[in-house]
Amino acid sequence: MLGDRVCSKCGQLIPRGTAECPICSPPRAFQVRREIMLLVYLGLLIVLGTITGFAVKAFNRVDKRIGWSWYTQGEASLQRGDAAAAVLDYRNALYHDRSNPSYELQLAHALVASGHFDEARTYLTRLWATDPANGPVNLELAQLEMRSKNVPGVINYYHAAIDGVWPHMVAQGRLQLRERLCNYLIAQGLRPEALAELMALAAQTPNDAQIQAQVAGLFSRVGDYDSALKQYQESLRLNSRLASAWAGAGKAAFELGDYEAARHYLNRAVARNPHDRESAKLLEVASDVIGLDPFDRRVPFQTRRKRAIFDFNHAVSGLVDCAKTKGQQLGAPAPQTDLQTAYAQAVKMKRQMRLSAFRRNPDLMEGGMKLAFQIEQLTAKECGPPQAIGQALLLIANQNKGIGQ
After folding, report:
1. pLDDT: is 26 or 145 the higher one?
2. For residue 230, is it within any domain?
């Protein structure tokens, strides 16, 4: 075979006018068929890939529906109080939908309810690491810290929950979370921490009479009656018909020793709610304090003397009743008990507790009231809390500690 060139692959001569070696290069028709086949194969791959994608998506949708079915079953298990069953339900839900944090959170909740605290913490910590601003996760962690008695942890997680992201949280919901934190701190006896939270709560409280009254009640629980009274007054400014606010204001004023204000508020509370026995009782005591105080400079001196005689006689009468309940004989020549000694002192003082004697010696009134206060304190110690007038006398003694000591 003659040619001008030699094929570099097979060594054959390439005929003139031919671009490629006839031995090494396939016919043109074959090349065309090969390209067509490649295109066909590529098309088939695309079709199969598309079908596979649709199949995977369809499978995932079915899997998610199965997961949702297990999730709803878990919710039902929790509602009927079967936490152990709920744990299994939520595990199955997560198996079918591993990327759903809501299922993981509910599994952690069910684990807590069933007593598996360490495992619950593992799930919650992982969720927190992924989303530290997640409100529900922080709340669950706060409740776990409560069980561990880790107060700083409780406060930190509650703050994160209050400021965190919630699916459908409103401002009142955040207030309720802070209220729950306050209740926890109060229950733990952590007054400074509770007061700090209450100050923040009061600053965020909306112009809602009921909520203002609830916050005032928390201040009362920690013994900050001044702040409580202010909150109750704001509540009444918003809604003067709120009986609970009148009652709360009355109790706060009573604890502050402002019995005139307490009587005003408690009168309104009882008028609004005649079944409020606590307010009625406080009203009676406050009225007795106002009407029996012999040291009230606003009333005439003659009236104060009469009050002193009444108070003294009431204290002695209570002493006699207390001795009877204790089975002690009063009037013995040689007193042996505290009640007998107090009675012997009262008998001597009683001879001087007369208006005529007060005119000659004004200091007798103070001496008589000092003994009356001591007798009331003794009978309260020996026989328990006294009734309304006795309570009033103890409160008057507390207001005049220099006399009662």
Report:
1. 145
2. yes
β-pairing verdict for 13-14 and 5-6: antiparallel
d(CA 294, CA 369): 8
- Helix axes of 101-113 and 117-130: crossing angle, nearest 10 degrees: 150
Q: State the total domains in the chain.
A: 2
Q: What is the pLDDT of residues 190-203, one digit of tens each?
A: 999 999 989 988 88
**Same-domain pairing of 265 and 329:** no
Report helix, strand or coil for 118: helix
| Residue 388: count of CB within 10 angstroms of its CB | 16
Place of tokens 């207001």: 399
- Give CA–CA dist 349/358, Å, rounded: 12
> How far apart are alpha carbons 308 and 354 in whole angstroms?
10
Torsion 199-203-205-210 (CA) sign:
positive
- Give the tokens for residue 338: 């505290």
How many CA atoms lie less than 13 Å away from 4 in the CB half-sphere? 5
Q: Answer whether residue 342 is part of any domain.
A: yes
Give pLDDT tens digits for 112-123: 888 888 888 888
Whole-angstrom CA distances from 72 to 76, 124, 168, 221 are: 6, 20, 19, 40
Token reading at 145: 């810290």
Domain range for 351: 301-404
Residue 247 lies in a domain: yes
* Residue 309 shares a structural domain with residue 396: yes
Amino acid at 306: K
Classify residue 115 as left (phi > 0), alpha (psi -120 to 50) or beta.
left
Place of tokens 């509910």: 106
